[in-house]
Amino acid sequence: MNTKPIPAIIMLTAGFVTCVIGILQHYSFGVFVKTLFLILVGFYILGGIVKFVLDKGFVVMDDPLADYDGMEFDEDLIDSMVMTEDDY
Predict the structure, then answer these.
(1) Contact of 39 with 84, CB cutoff 8 Å
(2) pLDDT digits (tens, 9 = 90+) for 45-63
(3) What is the pLDDT of residue 70?
(4) Is a pLDDT exceeding 90 seen at residue 78?
């Protein structure tokens, strides 16, 4: 599971919500910037915690075909499995 973008997604979503609330509530610029900064930092840390929990909770599944790399196959067995015109 690719969890790398989770902290950024959570942080940016919280920042968007903060911007909308700040505009609707007519925050002054100074208060808005301080609030936005604290929200972004806080939710980035929260996103990092969520990413850590997901990484520990879900084991990364290995590619099942990775075991077959470099493996030699029995050509006689493969040839016997291939259908010829006589098999139709």
Answers:
(1) no
(2) 999 999 999 988 876 655 5
(3) 58
(4) no
pTM of the predicted model as reported, rounded to 2 decimal places: 0.64
Per this entry, what is the length of the chain?
Answer: 88
Task: Write the burial class of residue 81 (CB in 10 Å: 0-12 exposed, 13-18 middle, 19+ buried).
Answer: exposed
Instruction: Give me 74's structure tokens.
Output: 């029995």
Tokens of 75: 């050509």
**For the chain, percent helix, then strand, then coil, each to nearest 5?**
70, 0, 30
- The three-point CA angle 15-26-35 to 5° equals 35
Q: Which tokens belong to 82?
A: 């291939």
